[in-house]
Specification:
It is a single chain. With 87 residues, the chain is of the alpha/beta class. Helices cover 23% and strands 25% of the residues. It contains 2 helices and 4 strands. The longest helix has 11 residues.
């Protein structure tokens, strides 16, 4: 308004809310959901501690992306993949 010739100022700016925080699943709930996610992968087992999922066993290379996607959807703190990849 202090500028000559300006009679008013309209502020139409908006501020987006912050993104929701990442939800870390509790170990007990995570154990049940990981077991369900791995039901189709009988050669893979998982150990869960402090929100970290450690995978061991064998998995086919073609099955790995689908399994990892299912596990990431569960929002663990971290996934440590120690599986052996078979062709």
């Amino acid at each position: 308004k202090a500028v000559k010739g300006i009679s008013s100022v309209a502020d139409n700016a908006t501020v987006a809310p912050p993104p929701p925080p990442v939800v870390i699943s509790a170990d007990d709930a995570l154990k049940m959901t990981v077991a369900a996610a791995l039901k189709d992968y009988s050669t893979v087992s998982a150990d869960i501690k402090d929100g970290v999922v450690t995978l061991t066993g064998n998995i086919k290379k073609a099955d790995l992306p689908k399994m990892m996607q299912a596990l990431n959807a569960l929002h663990p703190k971290k996934i440590m993949n120690k599986t052996t990849i078979a062709k």
